[in-house]
Request: fold
Amino acid sequence: MLSAEAKIRVRYAETDRMGYVYYGNYATYYEVARGELVRKIGVTYVQLEADGYFLPIAELKIKYIKPALYDELLTVKVTLKKFESAKLEFEYQVFNEQGELINTGYTLQVFISGKTRRPTRPPKYFIEALEQAIKRDNN
Reply:
Protein backbone atom coordinates (compact mmCIF):
# COMPACT_ATOMS: atom_id res chain seq x y z
CA MET A 1 0.00 0.00 0.00
CA LEU A 2 2.32 2.78 1.28
CA SER A 3 5.81 2.34 2.73
CA ALA A 4 8.60 4.36 4.33
CA GLU A 5 11.96 3.67 5.92
CA ALA A 6 13.94 5.05 8.83
CA LYS A 7 17.63 4.53 9.63
CA ILE A 8 18.36 4.12 13.33
CA ARG A 9 21.78 3.76 14.93
CA VAL A 10 21.60 1.56 18.04
CA ARG A 11 22.72 3.55 21.08
CA TYR A 12 24.50 1.92 24.01
CA ALA A 13 21.63 2.82 26.36
CA GLU A 14 19.27 0.73 24.20
CA THR A 15 21.17 -2.50 24.80
CA ASP A 16 21.01 -5.02 27.62
CA ARG A 17 23.81 -6.81 29.45
CA MET A 18 24.26 -9.24 26.53
CA GLY A 19 24.84 -6.33 24.15
CA TYR A 20 21.52 -6.97 22.38
CA VAL A 21 18.93 -4.27 21.79
CA TYR A 22 16.51 -4.51 24.71
CA TYR A 23 13.29 -6.00 23.37
CA GLY A 24 11.06 -3.07 24.37
CA ASN A 25 13.03 -0.65 22.19
CA TYR A 26 11.67 -2.14 18.98
CA ALA A 27 8.32 -0.46 19.63
CA THR A 28 10.18 2.88 19.68
CA TYR A 29 11.95 2.01 16.43
CA TYR A 30 8.57 1.23 14.88
CA GLU A 31 7.30 4.60 16.05
CA VAL A 32 10.20 6.42 14.39
CA ALA A 33 9.48 4.69 11.06
CA ARG A 34 5.74 5.26 11.41
CA GLY A 35 6.40 8.97 11.95
CA GLU A 36 8.32 9.03 8.67
CA LEU A 37 5.41 7.36 6.89
CA VAL A 38 2.94 9.91 8.29
CA ARG A 39 5.25 12.72 7.10
CA LYS A 40 5.32 11.06 3.68
CA ILE A 41 1.53 11.34 3.64
CA GLY A 42 2.00 15.06 4.21
CA VAL A 43 0.48 15.22 7.68
CA THR A 44 2.13 15.30 11.12
CA TYR A 45 1.06 13.92 14.45
CA VAL A 46 1.39 17.47 15.79
CA GLN A 47 -1.18 18.67 13.26
CA LEU A 48 -3.58 15.81 14.02
CA GLU A 49 -3.30 16.35 17.76
CA ALA A 50 -3.81 20.11 17.38
CA ASP A 51 -7.04 19.30 15.54
CA GLY A 52 -8.23 17.01 18.35
CA TYR A 53 -7.28 13.59 16.95
CA PHE A 54 -5.08 11.01 18.65
CA LEU A 55 -3.75 7.67 17.39
CA PRO A 56 -3.03 5.31 20.29
CA ILE A 57 -1.68 1.84 19.66
CA ALA A 58 -4.41 -0.78 20.20
CA GLU A 59 -2.28 -3.84 19.29
CA LEU A 60 1.43 -4.60 19.07
CA LYS A 61 3.06 -7.81 17.87
CA ILE A 62 6.81 -8.38 17.58
CA LYS A 63 8.79 -11.34 16.26
CA TYR A 64 12.49 -11.46 17.16
CA ILE A 65 14.60 -13.28 14.57
CA LYS A 66 18.17 -12.13 15.34
CA PRO A 67 19.47 -9.59 17.84
CA ALA A 68 20.43 -6.06 16.90
CA LEU A 69 23.69 -4.93 18.48
CA TYR A 70 25.21 -1.74 19.81
CA ASP A 71 26.25 0.76 17.10
CA GLU A 72 24.58 -1.14 14.25
CA LEU A 73 22.75 0.99 11.71
CA LEU A 74 19.28 -0.52 11.38
CA THR A 75 16.81 0.03 8.58
CA VAL A 76 13.21 -0.02 9.77
CA LYS A 77 10.69 -0.43 6.97
CA VAL A 78 7.03 0.29 7.71
CA THR A 79 4.12 -0.47 5.42
CA LEU A 80 0.55 0.69 5.85
CA LYS A 81 -1.24 -2.59 5.15
CA LYS A 82 -4.83 -1.59 5.82
CA PHE A 83 -6.87 1.52 6.43
CA GLU A 84 -10.51 1.17 7.25
CA SER A 85 -12.83 3.48 9.14
CA ALA A 86 -10.82 4.62 12.18
CA LYS A 87 -8.14 1.88 12.05
CA LEU A 88 -4.63 1.86 10.57
CA GLU A 89 -2.70 -1.43 10.37
CA PHE A 90 1.07 -1.29 9.95
CA GLU A 91 3.67 -3.99 9.33
CA TYR A 92 7.37 -3.57 10.10
CA GLN A 93 10.61 -5.16 9.00
CA VAL A 94 13.94 -4.39 10.67
CA PHE A 95 17.18 -5.10 8.82
CA ASN A 96 20.75 -5.01 10.15
CA GLU A 97 23.70 -3.49 8.27
CA GLN A 98 24.23 -6.75 6.37
CA GLY A 99 20.69 -6.50 5.03
CA GLU A 100 19.48 -9.45 7.13
CA LEU A 101 15.90 -9.41 8.36
CA ILE A 102 16.21 -9.45 12.15
CA ASN A 103 12.76 -8.45 13.38
CA THR A 104 9.17 -8.13 12.17
CA GLY A 105 6.20 -6.49 13.77
CA TYR A 106 2.63 -5.29 13.52
CA THR A 107 0.70 -2.44 15.10
CA LEU A 108 -2.92 -1.37 14.99
CA GLN A 109 -3.66 2.29 15.63
CA VAL A 110 -7.10 3.76 16.12
CA PHE A 111 -8.14 7.36 15.56
CA ILE A 112 -9.82 8.69 18.68
CA SER A 113 -11.40 12.04 19.48
CA GLY A 114 -9.45 14.15 21.95
CA LYS A 115 -12.74 15.23 23.51
CA THR A 116 -14.59 11.93 23.86
CA ARG A 117 -11.62 9.50 23.84
CA ARG A 118 -13.78 7.30 21.61
CA PRO A 119 -12.94 5.96 18.13
CA THR A 120 -13.69 8.42 15.35
CA ARG A 121 -13.14 8.74 11.64
CA PRO A 122 -9.99 10.64 10.71
CA PRO A 123 -10.26 14.18 9.38
CA LYS A 124 -11.03 14.58 5.71
CA TYR A 125 -7.63 16.18 5.02
CA PHE A 126 -5.90 13.03 6.33
CA ILE A 127 -7.93 10.74 4.05
CA GLU A 128 -7.28 12.95 1.03
CA ALA A 129 -3.55 13.22 1.79
CA LEU A 130 -3.32 9.44 2.28
CA GLU A 131 -5.03 8.77 -1.06
CA GLN A 132 -2.62 11.16 -2.81
CA ALA A 133 0.42 9.59 -1.15
CA ILE A 134 -0.69 6.10 -2.20
CA LYS A 135 -1.07 7.31 -5.80
CA ARG A 136 2.42 8.88 -5.72
CA ASP A 137 3.94 5.75 -4.17
CA ASN A 138 2.38 3.46 -6.78
CA ASN A 139 3.67 5.50 -9.75
In short: The first helix runs from residue 25 to 41.
